[in-house]
Amino acid sequence: MITRVIFEGNVYYKVADLASLFEVSPSTMRNRVKKANVGTRLSGFGRAVFVMESDVAKIEANGQVKVLETEFTADPVKHEYAMEVRPQEKKRKSKETKESAEKVVEPSMDSDKKNEFDALIKEAKQYAKNLLNAGKMDVADEIWQKHLGKGKLLDNATIDDIEQIKSALPELKTAVAELEESQKFEEIVVDTANQLAHETELTAQLQI
């Protein structure tokens, strides 16, 4: 059994549920969805990625292509709505048992991944804040677009971008460190200039 979401008259499936349906890992399914360019987010459902039912047939995974069709006996309600979906292909009992076991483990794994994602975002925002305060936000934006894709910034990152965020953090950290070193150098230059000016003033007073 997988869940589906009826939103604005259309049926959508979560990437994790499609992974179970195609018998592949969630990461593999995310890559397939991205490759087919059929992933989308729904207003009010957070950062989760969904695939419209009519687009499922565009996904090829594990040597399979599936066509899902939902028959409505009444007008669909525009909110999240869970029910059993029966794919056209019959699954063996052993496969159903495997899916049930994966369903039990998946919430825990998702929770761990969400916690990791939140921690990475918090760290990244701190680095970005330091650069913003120094008027160097363009440096942070350049790093994010390098790792997340052109035109995509930290605010657009999702839990599916964990690996990209991890690879971007060292560069952000280095940028902040270089900025701090530059600021220290500027402070030393200013202090030295002030000291020289003060000494010059004292010398002038003594000559008088």
Report on the structure:
There is one protein chain. The chain is of the alpha+beta class and 208 residues long. It has two domains: 5-90, no CATH class; 113-207, no CATH class. 57% of the residues lie in helices and 8% in strands. The protein is built from five helices and six strands. It has helices at 15-22, 26-36, 93-133, 137-148, 162-207, and strands at 5-7, 10-14, 39-40, 50-52, 60-61, 64-65. The chain has a four-stranded antiparallel β-sheet with strand order 1-2-4-3. Strands 5-6 form a two-stranded antiparallel ribbon. The longest helix is centred in the C-terminal third of the chain and has 46 residues, at 162-207. It is elongated, with a radius of gyration of 27 Å. 20% of the residues are buried. Mean pLDDT is 75; it is low at 77-84. Residues 96-109 have a biased composition (Basic and acidic residues). Residues 84-109 are annotated as: Disordered.
How many distinct domains?
A: 2
Which percent range describes the beta-strand content? 5-15%
Number of strands: 6
Distance between the termini: 95 Å
The parts where pLDDT drops under 50 for at least 5 residues are 77-84
Structural class: alpha+beta
Estimated helix fraction: 55-70%
Q: Counting H and I runs of at least 4 residues, what is the number of helices? A: 5
Taking Cα atoms only, what radius of gyration do you get, to the nearest Å? 27 Å
Specify the overall morphology.
Answer: elongated
Question: What is the topology, as strand order, of the major beta sheet?
Answer: 1-2-4-3
User: Main β-sheet, in a few words?
Assistant: 4 strands, antiparallel
Region (Disordered): 84-109
Biased composition (Basic and acidic residues): 96-109
